């Protein structure tokens, strides 16, 4: 796919500075950000690339852009910087750990050797566009995107990657296989993660990182999942029922009607029994079953308002009969 940049009308707002000059998209020359000698690669990886037999002998014979693309098509099988099992990082901690890439080296991968070979060719904008839109192999595209990540200004990364964030083409990125990723997920990892398989990308300034995160949230707004509503039965406020307490009860399926009736009947029985006990105590002269025997004795010997006590009445009757 060939793209002509000389006749296309790009906005002049897109500008990137390199060595004091202003380059626009109309210019086919790509700017170089960071260290122009090392391609911003880790020093250990770069040393292993430059000293490897594959880079010094095999890739030295490749002189053109298309020859390197053919080599990528036939030789690249993953995107890690080291071949599987060639680098031993056991027992190393701190700055010598695997993340910083300062520990013992191994066999550098074919992918990173070819990536650095592309850097030595000083690719133009047209050639980089041909890499990231290549239709023969996803690894050709991935190395094109990785070339952009290492060499282009951080402010230009979003413009390069935005239209490919939804790309669903898959590839295996792990040495030895076992981790399938799409082009879109790889680009998101390039933008928002600094680490890539025991090496580090060039750091992105915080303001630019925040701008990209804002653009990402606008492009992919978070999906708010609605909490499922409970399937409760509708309340029945019908006025046809006699008992107002039954209004708003839950349907018979969740609470049996017999249970409701038993509860209401028990409530009414207790209410009526309590009412009868209170009324009988207030309106009758019957003694309570809880009165003590002493009270019962006092009641039996109490004086009658008309005849006096029962013992005195019997004594007076005996005296009156004895006179006669």
TrEMBL record:
<protein>
    <recommendedName>
        <fullName>Pre-mRNA-splicing factor 38</fullName>
    </recommendedName>
</protein>
<dbReference type="GO" id="GO:0000398">
    <property type="term" value="P:mRNA splicing, via spliceosome"/>
</dbReference>
<comment type="function">
    <text>Required for pre-mRNA splicing.</text>
</comment>
<comment type="similarity">
    <text>Belongs to the PRP38 family.</text>
</comment>
<keyword id="KW-0747">Spliceosome</keyword>
<dbReference type="Pfam" id="PF03371">
    <property type="entry name" value="PRP38"/>
</dbReference>
<dbReference type="InterPro" id="IPR005037">
    <property type="entry name" value="PRP38"/>
</dbReference>
<feature type="compositionally biased region" description="Basic and acidic residues">
    <location>
        <begin position="311"/>
        <end position="324"/>
    </location>
</feature>
<keyword id="KW-0508">mRNA splicing</keyword>
<feature type="region of interest" description="Disordered">
    <location>
        <begin position="217"/>
        <end position="324"/>
    </location>
</feature>
<keyword id="KW-0539">Nucleus</keyword>
<dbReference type="GO" id="GO:0005681">
    <property type="term" value="C:spliceosomal complex"/>
</dbReference>
<feature type="compositionally biased region" description="Basic and acidic residues">
    <location>
        <begin position="226"/>
        <end position="299"/>
    </location>
</feature>
<keyword id="KW-0507">mRNA processing</keyword>
């Amino acid at each position: 796919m060939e793209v002509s940049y000389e006749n296309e009308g790009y906005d002049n707002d897109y500008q990137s500075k390199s060595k004091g000059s202003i380059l626009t998209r109309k210019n086919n020359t790509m700017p170089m950000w960071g260290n122009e000698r090392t391609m911003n690669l880790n020093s250990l990886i770069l040393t292993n690339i430059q000293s490897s037999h594959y880079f010094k002998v095999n890739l030295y014979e490749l002189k053109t852009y298309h020859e390197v693309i053919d080599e990528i098509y036939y030789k690249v099988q993953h995107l890690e910087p080291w071949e599987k099992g060639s680098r031993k990082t056991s027992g190393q901690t701190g700055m010598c750990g695997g993340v910083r890439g300062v520990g013992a080296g191994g066999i550098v991968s074919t992918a990173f050797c070819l990536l650095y070979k592309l850097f030595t060719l000083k690719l133009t904008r047209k050639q980089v566009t041909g890499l990231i839109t290549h239709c023969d192999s996803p690894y050709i595209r991935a190395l094109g995107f990785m070339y952009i990540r290492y060499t282009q200004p951080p402010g230009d990364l979003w413009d390069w990657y935005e239209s490919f964030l939804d790309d669903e083409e898959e590839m295996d990125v792990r040495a030895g296989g076992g981790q399938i990723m799409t082009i879109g997920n790889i680009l998101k990892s390039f933008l928002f993660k600094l680490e890539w398989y025991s090496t580090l990308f060039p750091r992105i300034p915080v303001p630019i990182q925040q701008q990209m995160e804002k653009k990402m949230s606008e492009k992919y707004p978070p999906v708010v999942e609605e909490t499922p509503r409970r399937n409760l039965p509708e309340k029945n406020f019908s006025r046809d029922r006699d008992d107002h307490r039954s209004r708003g009860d839950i349907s018979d399926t969740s609470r049996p009607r017999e249970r409701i009736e038993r509860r209401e009947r028990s409530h009414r029985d207790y209410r009526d029994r309590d009412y009868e006990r209170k009324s009988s105590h207030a309106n009758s002269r019957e003694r309570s079953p809880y009165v003590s025997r002493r009270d019962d004795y006092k009641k039996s010997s109490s004086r009658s308002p008309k005849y006096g006590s029962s013992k005195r009445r019997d004594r007076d009757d005996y005296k009156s009969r004895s006179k006669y």
